[in-house]
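[User]
Protein folding is very new to me. Any chance you could explain this protein sequence and its structure tokens? I have pasted everything here:
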Amino acid sequence: MPYFEKVARFCFFIATGRSGHSIIGHLLSAHPDVLISDELAALSFIEEGFSASQIYALIRFQDLRFQGRKRKKSGYNYWVDGAYQNISDKHPVVIGDAKGSRSIRLLSQDPQFAEKIKQRLGIPIRAIIHIRNPLDVISTQVRRKK
């Protein structure tokens, strides 16, 4: 686990689908000390009993997969020019996942789930709550479905 030896915080998002938390995750991940995977649903792996090192490896794998797609998804380009974005082997200090809807589900089913995350990973956790104007979400859905 040497690549993850500097990890000091776990970050996850609390948001609904289409809220824009993916772009926030990618902007954070552009920092050299931060590794946020794109919609891995890491909290599901915590729920299933995966170890911290397994979850961190999955987060890195998911990010490398996204890197291989040139950080493009669903017609959006999440590349940040001149930013880090997992280009070298710098060790992350903050690690996490941008899958907000799964977080809402798990936390609403078990109010103690945040404490379980902290115990499983053995480091402090940080939740980012992101709310987007509901009309933006509705207009996107209408436009996509024509």
Observations:
- The CA atoms of residues 43 and 103 lie 7 Å apart.
- Strands lie at 9-14, 34-38, 72-73, 76-77, 94-98, 125-129.
- The mean pLDDT is 85.
- The first strand starts at residue 9 and ends at 14.
